[in-house]
């Protein structure tokens, strides 16, 4: 996750109903952060009096900015607070925090992941249900549900499809009735393929059993 994407994800219209359409709240939603509290407790039990309370605070994952910011002032705000936002971004934990046993299975491990160091968490992964005749097809895709501020599982975060997972990508779109697809990467960046082209320039294209028309 790069800094620009992080800033974009931190800017959302949580309080539009109360503040008006031209106002947005800037806040950080980390999601279910663990921060390895267990290892912290083992290091010095005396210093950690209430692990459950600390965990609850950290896992709440929401930190609100102190003031509302108008949309037309957002860019100026970001530029004026770039160093603070950079430090906040760097503080976001990186690494595995939940089980991903399904993603580690041999049939999924090598062929389903663009970057094999990360896999879909078991508890929130998107489980494919649409039938497919593709060889090696399964219910696994490198994708997890993400809670919105108003509804659980409102979004899906996934990798740029691979040549071997484009059909699975469209199975997921059909299964979840996804209405909007947002691509946060170019197909190729710095001579590295980041995303397989999963659409046709014009007309109809088949992805497995699914027809997509542009």
UniProtKB/TrEMBL annotation:
Keywords: Hydrolase, Protein phosphatase. It holds the Pfam family Y_phosphatase. Its EC number is 3.1.3.48. GO terms for molecular function: protein tyrosine phosphatase activity. It comes from the Eukaryota. Residues 85-214 form the Tyrosine-protein phosphatase domain. SMART domains: PTPc. InterPro entries: Prot-tyrosine_phosphatase-like, Protein-Tyr_Phosphatase, PTP_cat. Belongs to the protein-tyrosine phosphatase family. PANTHER family: PROTEIN-TYROSINE-PHOSPHATASE, RECEPTOR-TYPE TYROSINE-PROTEIN PHOSPHATASE. This is protein-tyrosine-phosphatase.
């Amino acid at each position: 996750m790069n800094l620009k994407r992080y800033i974009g994800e931190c800017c959302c219209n949580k309080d539009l109903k109360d503040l008006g359409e031209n106002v947005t709240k800037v806040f950080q939603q980390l999601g279910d952060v663990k921060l390895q509290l267990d290892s912290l407790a083992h290091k010095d039990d005396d210093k950690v009096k209430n692990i459950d309370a600390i965990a609850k605070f950290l896992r709440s994952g929401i930190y609100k900015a102190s003031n509302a910011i108008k949309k037309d002032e957002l860019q100026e705000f970001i530029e004026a607070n770039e160093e603070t936002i950079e430090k906040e971004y760097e503080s976001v934990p990186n690494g595995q925090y939940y089980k991903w046993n399904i993603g580690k299975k041999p049939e999924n491990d090598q062929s389903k992941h663009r970057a094999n160091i990360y896999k879909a968490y078991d508890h929130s992964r998107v489980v494919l249900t649409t039938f497919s005749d593709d060889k090696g097809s399964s219910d696994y895709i490198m994708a997890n549900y993400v809670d919105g501020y108003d509804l659980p599982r409102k979004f899906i975060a996934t990798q740029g499809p691979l040549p071997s997972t484009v059909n699975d990508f469209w199975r997921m779109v059909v299964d979840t009735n996804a209405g909007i697809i947002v691509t946060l990467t170019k197909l190729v960046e710095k001579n590295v393929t980041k995303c397989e082209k999963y659409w046709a320039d014009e007309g109809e294209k088949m992805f497995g059993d699914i027809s997509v028309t542009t």
